[in-house]
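Lecture 7 notes. Example A: sequence first, then its structure tokens.
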Amino acid sequence: VQLQASGGGLVQAGGSLRLSCAASGFTSDYYYIGWFRQAPGQEREGVSCISSSDGSTYYADSVKGRFSISSDNAKNTVYLQMNSLKPEDTAVYLCAADLSPFTIATSCNAIGPYDYWGQGTQVTVSS
């Protein structure tokens, strides 16, 4: 499985960015794609994730109502639309794949089950 994240950049507070995660190499139709972020000196946290089978989603409380995750199965790409960005959203954003058949949407933000990680893309929000 290979993942390629893109779309980061520098944006002013209140602005928007759309991140993309191009995925390939899956041998199962059941998996989760998650977006995580890590700011300097802070732990990696789950931001949002989506199921490949039924589109179930999860959002961290800090991004609910501002971020939206979606998938284009034809393109094998998962998107993270980020609106109303805040300086505290500044971080390296990474996408990852969880192939466990036991993962459900309410727990797909847990880092442990994710076996495959793409490289990060930097998101910087200026005040």
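Example B, a different protein, same format:
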Amino acid sequence: VQLVESGGGLVQPGGSLRLSCAASGFTFSTYDMRWYRQAPGKERELVAHISGVFGGGSTNYADSVKGRFTISRDNAKNTLYLQMNSLKPEDTAVYYCNAPRISLWGQGTQVSVSS
């Protein structure tokens, strides 16, 4: 049972990145999934949430990323995504995917936004 993130990196302000989270060992499609982030010296914060199939795949976002980030999932590929556009320096953080029902976390992927 694991989650493995990828897709982080260094990007200039205004740029875009897409994070991926590969899930294994559980019935991915039926689980709500989340993206969190943690910046240096700050608490981990919830970025986006997407429900499983029984919730219709509904989504919710933190106010700080609404309109810029999009959470999605491909249940056939057991993969969660986070499309991040119009990135700002304050988006710099380690991003984690999470399956809250089973308290499962990935190892995190670093996103750095800087000119």
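Note on Example B: The CA atoms of residues 3 and 101 lie 14 Å apart. The chain has a mean pLDDT of 97.
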